[in-house]
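Justification of computing resources. Each target in the renewal requires a structure prediction run like the one illustrated here; the chain below, 331 residues long, is used simply to show the kind of job we budget for.
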Amino acid sequence: MITGAAGRGAVFRAHVVIGVLGAFASSLAPIAVPVAVAADTSSPRTAVLAQIGLETDADDFGGLLARGGALFGYQSYLQNFGFAAQNTHYAQDGWNEDVPGVIGIYRNQRRDTLEGLRAEAGVVSLSGHARPIGDVTWSHRPRDTTGIELIAAGDVVGTREALERGISYGLAAASVEQQFGSRLTGIAFAGWQPFTDGNSRSLLRARLIWGIAPEQGLSAQVRWRQYASSKDDVDGAYYNPERYRNWDAGLSLRRRVGTWTVGGLAGAGRERADNASWQTTTIAELRAEGPLSGGMRLTIGVLYNRAAGFAESSDYWYGSASIGVIVPLTL
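Resulting structure tokens:
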């Protein structure tokens, strides 16, 4: 997760769309981490995957995601395809709702630049409705200093009222990254986020990243994000100002520790909805990913975000934690 503007509910499938929709998830650092660029030479295998995720917020609204599946043609975590079944159990003050679903998975990316396609797409059952979900990103670098991404995503809207009404959203977006010299990088993003209740949002993002110590993976970044909603009344289903603006700044660290990649972020800023006063926001994130014995791969992430999401409450905060593992099978 794609997610700030997308709110809770998309964070469990965090990837670059979280940096698009949500706080800073994909912005841990656009600075490259040195990796071996040799092609995978192992024969394709079958692997099993499992993921558990937990989220909660200031309204005591919680979600528990359980996912399990199989990957085929598995050469590495960057080259595989498969499927998974999942269920997200939402609960709040004695109320609960299960959102089961199935997804297809495809990943084919270069190890050195992560160019290529990363896709998850499927359907969930929500209050008697079949809703598409997904997270698809195609990345390309026409030059060493320029990157392009095309993004499509979708998920359910994570509030009790929205879940009971079967509301979900989609996303179509594009971003361009440009490096200026050896330390400065700029990223621009534009997107459209339609909702199944007839609302839609136009999204704009901009980010500047300065490599403080590139050899150590340390960078500073400043970001602006905003959206405008087409409807000013969604019957209280989710937080929906006509206009939302937010700027924030932070430090991020992303580097190799042995065979693992570890990243962290701490930042703060200000947000404003419509003509209300500016409010303080904060963000903290930690993520680790790397191999275990037998070719297994483990991913761990935690996130804390104090900023507007889909909930209506003042002084809103959101937290999540997830752990995922891929286990190749020896046949």
